Amino acid sequence: MRRTTIAAATLALALLAPAAPAQEDPALSTFSIVACDPEEGFLGVGIQSRVVGAGAIVPAAEAGVGAIATQAAANVAFKERGLELLREGLPPAEVRDLFAAEDPGIENRQFAVMDAQCRSSAFTGDSTLAWAGHRTGPHYSVQGNILTGPEVIEAMARAFEEAETAGLPFGERILASLKAGQEAGGDRRGRQGAGLLIVQEAGGYGGGDDRYADLRVEDHVEPILELERVYGVWMRLFHPVDHFLPAGSEAVAAPAGAHVCLLREMLAAAGHGTAPGDQRPCWFDEETIAALRAFQRAEGLPERPVLDSRTAERLRERAGS
Question: What is the pTM assigned to this prediction?
Answer without folding.
Answer: 0.86
